[in-house]
Design brief:
about 600 residues, alpha+beta, six-stranded antiparallel barrel, 7 helices
Amino acid sequence: MKKRSTIIFIAIIATLSGIGVIQWQRWETKSEATERQVFFIQTDPLTQKEYQGTITKTASVKSSSDITINAQVGWRVNNISVALWQKVGNKQRLLSMSDIAGSYSFGAQKAALSVQSAQNNFEINRLNLDKQIQDAQLAYQKTLVSSQSSIIGVGNSSADLQLQKLEQDLAKARSDYNAKLKSDDQTLENYVNTAKNVYSDVTNLMLDVIDKSDKFLGYTNENAHYNNGFEVYISVKDDNARYMAEQELAELINLREELKKLGDEITLDNITEFLSDYKMIVAWINEMTVAMKKVLNNTTPGWTLTPAWLDAEVAAFTTSQTRASSISSSITSQVNGIDLFVTTYGDNQNSLEQQIASLETQIAVSRRQLEDASQNAEISLEQSRNNLDFLKNTRDENLASLRNSLGQSQVAYQEAQFNLWKFSVNAPIEGVITEVMVDAWQEVSPGTPLIKMVSQWKEVEVKVTADERQYITIGQEVQLSYENTIVTGQVSEMSSVADSTANYTVKISIDEKTPVDIGAFVDVTIPLQGWNNIIPLNAVTIVDNNRGQIFIWNGENIETRTVTLGSVYGSSIEVEEKFSAGEELIVSDVSRYDPDSMDIKKRQ
């Protein structure tokens, strides 16, 4: 019966032990030039006593009594090896038995043959499965190579290369188209900025001409008295010239107000219209400079108007006239440039759009031509890949089934060997035969008394549970602790029927020479015997409630194995799985082992 209540205790012990779960892989031999370290491991066969659990009890020492050896199974007495009153040694054979039908001996032989057959079957199927995977891998590689000339974007066929060339041309055409759009937008933006600069030049020139003319003529309130000192001399030779200049100045002042409205409204749509307006305004400015020069030329020098001053004023208006002519020429050039750009702007964009459309059509035709071949190649490649994946996936499943059959055969073989071990009945202690209770060839049942013998040893009696009893055998050694002294005793008798508390009685004999007084209390430590499913607790890593992992040395490398956990006995724990002959449990820490840089060596 498994004791789930012990799992918390198991987890605590396993955590303190520092044994980590490690997924081991088979290492590959590295270059001889690489220096490999030696990793030492400590192992012991799974049948050693160190792996047996222990039961600790406290009991008082009693005097020895007769020992009755009962049959453990129902078999036939084959041979009696001792006589009445014969003195026998410990573990000496008393009699041998055989099963009535001889089925156990036959079963052991059959189990051994079954193990060999299962092993052969496993190896044959493993080789066949690996051969199938290898053939499928070669077929897949062949299909992959052949399909690379057909699958779009993968192969190197002329059609595929042509498609790639068309896609490159299309990418370039789209890039050129986007660059053209960006360049045209920048050109238009430059025209707008230039027009705004023209507006600034026209405005500055207008303000300059108006200011100079108004100061000389005194036309506006702002400069009404500026010319009081020389007004009588202005255009005295031709009074009509002054009148015409004042009319021109009035018109130019009105245009100045109109010009203020045009500055911030320039866009790509109205730029030509605005430039034409600017050119008209420049023409008015030019006429104003002509009119003012006529006024100055018809002005008589006076004491406030020297000839030099008049000449300087004429020269200033001549400069303004030159600026007006330059701005007018610039406007004409810009208008012509804009008209030419607008004429070719749409045609260039349409040409690039038609080129892109043509390339897209060619790509669509080329892609349709490749689709059928590409689809067929992909289907063939997918089928080959699926076949390879199927073989890989089913390989492990098939081998797991075969490995399970092999394991079952090995367990059956171990059980058969264990049954054969029960055929021999040995003396549990050193003593004298007092009664032989069966005859040769007599058939007996489990529990039938076979032989009685007496011993001069002292005796200790303890109670054990059913779970503990199954791992105790008559004749096994136990340790007794008495006043800081450890002595050895032997299990001499064990009840086959439980008492009212569901416990069984186990009697332990002590040699009469042992310095333990009758009536003294001793601590009894009983190693659990029997199957090799009792292992050290600190060699187990807890996985969950009832599972753990251990590390097995199989003679070549480290194998990680998951086991089902049962009851805890002292510093040992019960596992349900059986182990094969020759397997060794690793009891040292292997968490630092690196298969790529280390070689394993067992400590002796």
